[in-house]
Amino acid sequence: MTVPTTPTGRRERKKAATRQKIADTALRLFLERGYDAVGIRDVAAEADVAVTTVFSHFASKEALVFEQDQGFEQRLVQAVTGRAPHEPLVPALRREIEALVRHCAGDGAAPVRRMIDASPALREYEESMTLRHAESLATAIAADPGLSQSATACRTIARFAIDAYALAREAADPEAALDEIFRMIEAAWAVA
After folding, report:
1. CA-to-CA distance for 48 and 74, rounded, in angstroms?
2. Euclidean distance between the first and final Cα of the chain, in Å?
3. In the chain, what's the furthest Cα-to-Cα distance?
4. Residue 192 has pLDDT above 80, yes or no
């Protein structure tokens, strides 16, 4: 089963385009003026939508910065649920974490990272988001009939994978960091 990446109907495409426009506008304003200096009304006015439209797409101001949150969570779960029969879990997780690190280390990512690091509200939101991602990933691992580890082992490996993302993203050599981290994850999974 694959996660659809492009909305299929006209209405869904228009909603997705509006959502992206709001997110892009918010990020541009946050980077230009500073996160704390921009309000939801500013974003709505600049994106030429109503404040209620912003809130119909994003639950909070912080969510505007992490607009790809749900997509990342789905990708992590899909790494488990969509892997080929008999494909080992840890390499599948590594591929997805590697892709997420590449995405978040791409051009333009450094100013966004600095903005997140400078804002207590954004750091707190990111922390709760990563915990939610880890729980969703742990649930997917535990539900896999081919894997027979305990709930604790599933939650531990999920947390390790999520932490691997953060550690590699911050490393001078993300690829080398992922190699080292996933050797440890593989060893932990093997003894679970």
Report:
1. 30
2. 28
3. 55
4. no
DSSP code at position 83: S
């404040």: which residue's tokens? 51
Which pair of structure tokens corresponds to residue 86?
A: 């008999």
Answer for the pair 97, 168: CB distance below 8 angstroms, yes or no. yes
**Is pLDDT of 51 > 90?**
yes
Question: In whole angstroms, what is the distance from residue 153 CA to residue 144 CA?
Answer: 13
Contact 137, 164 (CB under 8 A): no
Q: What angle do CA 24, 30, 31 make, to 5 degrees?
A: 90
Residue 123, number of CB atoms within 10 A of its CB: 12
Distance CA 31, CA 35 (A): 7
H or E, element range at 145: none
Q: Return the half-sphere exposure (C-beta side, CA atoms, 13 A cut-off) of residue 110.
A: 2
Per-residue model confidence as pLDDT tens digits over 93-105: 999 999 988 887 7
Q: H or E element: which one contains 108?
A: none
DSSP state of 35: G
Give the containing element (helix H, strand E) for 177: helix 174-191
Question: CA dihedral in degrees (51, 54, 59, 64; nearest 10)?
Answer: -120
Residues 6+ apart with CB under 8 A from 16: 6, 7
- Decide: residue 182, CB within 10 A, 0-12 exposed, 13-18 middle, 19+ buried: buried
